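Exercise 3.2. Students should predict the tertiary structure of the chain below and write it as structure tokens, then compare their answer with the key that follows.

Predict this chain's 3D structure.
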Amino acid sequence: MADVAALAGVSSQTVSRVVNGRSNVDADTRDRVLAAMDEIGYRPNSAARALKSGKFSTIGVIMFTLSSFGNMRTLDAVAMAAAEAGYSITLIPVALPTQGAVAGAVNRLAEQAVDGIVIIMEAHMLDRIDVTVPTGLPVVIVDSDAGARYTVVDTDQTEGARLATQHLLDLGHKTVWHIAGPESSFSAGRRTASWRNTLKAAGAPVPPVLEGDWNAASGYVHGVALAANPEVTAVFASNDQMALGVMRALHEAGRSVPAEVSVVGFDDMREADAFWPPLTTVHQDFGQVGRLCIEKLLRQIDSPSASVPGTTIVPTHLVLRASTAPPPPPGLA
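Answer key:
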């Protein structure tokens, strides 16, 4: 650093400010320092800086699955928000959602020197009611019922499912069939409960729940059965991919969407408006979830006393497209 300072004609403190991305350095001075760093081949020693500051500029992320759309969008948002704050990400996937697996992942991250941890839960624990995280590191959890003990960020699954179900009822459908996500999923459980409660509040019949696995193939399998039932005029799928499978089954059976059967999804994936017809769905703001996770985690890192248990809910909203319409007249379904 002293060599860089001498070559650039500045103080070591100025070099330090440039290295750490401080804004109180004018552009010409910054360019001279960067040019001197390049000429000498100087690279900041992150380990030395961590020893001095007590921070590692790294955030650990624990995930139970890398295959679901929601988890990957959340991970992307967390990584982007962390990068904007000057942090890198260390990811540890966990094969099964068990307490031992979570504790092991936390301990591995602690050994790798991270400043805090984001846990993207999605699934209920297999071996206990809820998750317990070893103490000693700031933690934020996504999609969980752990808000009584930890900082949790989630989208409003309940309101989103209510909006989807109520939209179909308001169009005049007598009831709404539901293809749920896996029983182990927090978000699937909340969506299913909200769908059921919305039907009951409207005095509408509550059909049996059809459980899928988030993939289009499971939506297709249930869609084949639903297409064969002339009483089915409205379907709410717990994610867009299963809705796509349902729509394929309906098309193959010759049942028009939305003239004969209306379909609503959940997530608002980028391709939703490219479905045929374009899919009415519930939008989740994964970017806001990621930003809030990092914001709350950095607050704990900077001030451990700032860790306040509780759940922050990010609003969801219904995106109306062309896959929903009033039910067909009796005898034409």
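Discussion points: The mean pLDDT is 89. The first helix runs from residue 2 to 8.
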